Amino acid sequence: MSTERDAEHGTVDRRERFLEVLFRITLVLKGADGVLELLGGVLLLFLTPQRLNAVVVFLTQHELGDDPNDPVSNWIVHFGHTLTGSATLFGAVYLLLHGVVKVVLVWAVLKEQLWAYPWMIGFLAVFIGWQGWELARHFSWGLLALTAFDVLIVVLTVHEYRVQRRLREARRAAAAEGAQAATG
């Protein structure tokens, strides 16, 4: 009987360890995404639409030289031509705010700050909703993959939040028992 229980307990420990590692990996990836958004926001703040367009042309010229009908490169070039000062400012502010929120929340969750878990869940839930709306309007495999990744992070964050709350409650109970034993 005890070997069955030990084997079951070992399986649970391996599963929990796997979920914890997966959770940390996804958080680091989400944090790296936040850092990239910050860098993109800073670039947009300091690059004029004309400079941005020149960068776009430079980055796509090789591909368009090989295939002048490449739809992705042509779309990027077209997008670069439509950039305005207000559009780049909006993009910069959006990326900076979004990046800061991501980096702060990821950092706080990695530091096991309980307040950050519900904020991370709520933040991602809002974006999952928006991404779902965009998917319904204009399907994209990339957006579908991003949405699935965000859903995975939410599921893992909910799980880890519950684990962290149980651990804190167990520590409080143990501390209370220790204090009671010392006084009693």
UniProtKB/TrEMBL annotation:
The chain crosses the membrane at residues 21-47, 87-107, 114-133, 139-158. InterPro entries: DUF2127 (IPR021125), UCP034455 (IPR014591). The keyword Membrane applies. Keywords: Membrane, Transmembrane, Transmembrane helix. This is Putative membrane protein.
